[in-house]
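S2.1 Query sequence (Cobalamin biosynthesis bifunctional protein CbiET)
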Amino acid sequence: MKITIIGVNDQFPQFSEEVTLEINSSHCFAGGKRHHDLVKSILPDNHNWCSVVAPLESLIETIRKSSENWIVFASGDPLFFGIGNTLKREFPDAEIVVLPTFNSLQILGHKIGINYGEYHVISLTGRSWKVFDKALIEGVERMSVLTDRKKTPASIASRMLEFGYVNYRMLYGEKIGGDEERILELTLEEALSLDFKHPNCFFLEKTNETIPVKGIPETDFDPLAGRPRMITKMPIRLTTLALMQLNQHRVFWDVGACTGSVSIEAKLNHPHLQVTAFEIRPESEGIIMRNARKFQTPGIQLVMGDYLKVSKKELAFPDAVFIGGYGGKMEKVLDDVNKYLQSNGVIGFNSVSSESLNRFLDWCSHNQFEITQQQQIQVDDHNPISILVAQKIN
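Output structure tokens follow.
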């Protein structure tokens, strides 16, 4: 099977004689509605068109059942976060020919005269916020962003403003290369009310060097009402996270998040982490979200309710877990954590009493966990805190 993937933009395509001959001799075509509108006048009368809509399973199944060669029309460069990568992965034995044109970000860069090679490319087309959030927290100065119909310029600007990333300007383009092309320089506030059309993309440029604060004093967090001391102190928090070596892990659970201080610090210092915070107190939901916004920390997934009762089947399983609270059920919480913790994953634990310390050590010895770190720290006039990290060795 041969699959030819042809990149087009928003103008009527001018194909080479060789490509025109291949189109004229083909029967099976695929592409989006916009692509069909552009090329339908040059397709053979008896052509079969398969619409490309997300998810792509229907298209893939149609091609897989076919014995004919296919021509697939795509936007710009089909290998630039495009359908070409999916087709190469799904049809490894097929002959795949890619005929690209400039992608939308390249054309926009040409139009406004910038060195687009200096911009960190982020595709939000059919993707989560994870990579974008990471770039914001890391303080990336220049970004080029591909959008879709859910993650629009307005929704992206809204997320940035919600979490305090006000120090960017947007260089926006829509229907690039076509008759309805529009290019604008916008503040994020202006982007909120933009009457935009698809397809669109934009560049983000920092307007000042502000970056999120790390190593946050506990007094700066919004506290639990009437319980201002119920928070992991900064030296304890930072030491625990450092000893857990989160740079080597990918999925972090914070069990008993309370104010969200540990989740926030983990995400700020390790933006690659997928962070999930569990908390039973209903009033903590607003507190955690306020603190996340206050300290510019998007991307924390919050699961409210009793940790032992909430469903975790749809969550990414952790390779690092911090036990911030267990409601008098330490062993039951640890047993449940152990069900989901990946092999060689770690548990971080803080103990204020010899009783809880010994219970944790006893549980570890009976469940094939090795204590890899154990330190004791005293902050001001507070009781000494034992900081432990245990690694799953089965």
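The longest strand covers residues 369-377. The radius of gyration is 26 Å.
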